[in-house]
Structure formats: C-alpha cells, structure tokens
Amino acid sequence: MATLRNLKIKISTCKRIVKELHSYEKEVETESAKTADMKAKGADPYDLKQQENVLGESRMMVPDCRKRLEAALSDLKGTLVQLEESGEKEGSEIDDARSTITDVEQIFQSSDVY
Question: Which of 21, 48, 71, 83 would give a disulfide with 88, using CB separation of 3.0 to 4.6 Å?
Fold first, then answer.
C-alpha cells in the first residue's frame, strides 16, 4: 500500500540520484580536461596512465547512476499511480512527485551518454 510517506522517500531518492549524476558528469569533464592537459604537457607515462584510470572509473559511474535513476523513477511513478488510484490526487507531495518525474524525464531526454 502506497502512502504519502513512501512517496516523499521516493521523491527524495530521485532528487539525490539526480545530484549524484550531475556530480559524476562534472567529475568526468574535470578529469577529461586534466588528462588532456597532462597529455599536452608530456607528463610521465605512469602518471598519465593513473590519470586515465581515474577518468575511466568516473566514466563507469555515469551509466551506473543512470540505471539507479531509472529504477528510482520507475518506483516513484508506481507509487504515484497507486496513490492516485486510492483517491489521493491533490496535495503538495503529489505535485512534487509530478514535477520530479518531469524533471528526471527531461534529464534522460536531453543528456548525452558517456
């Protein structure tokens, strides 16, 4: 049985994962720039290899985070549907859930994949 408390938890989960996703995407950009700078300056091959490993790990986190966000979005949608079927169609939590769903779907539509 879905409750407003469950809905709030799922909304918070989606928002947290969105922040994580943006953080990882920003980290990939930063590490890419750092790697390119090291290559341009002719850095030690060992240091360059280590930096490429760091960049690779950062890139691996983006798809993982996307999968978790997809799962969280699916849970949020399911909970919202259950609440709407049980008669809860108004309220700040319901509106917040709808806007969170819209925001997350826009992220999936507008973002590029690493």
Answer: 83
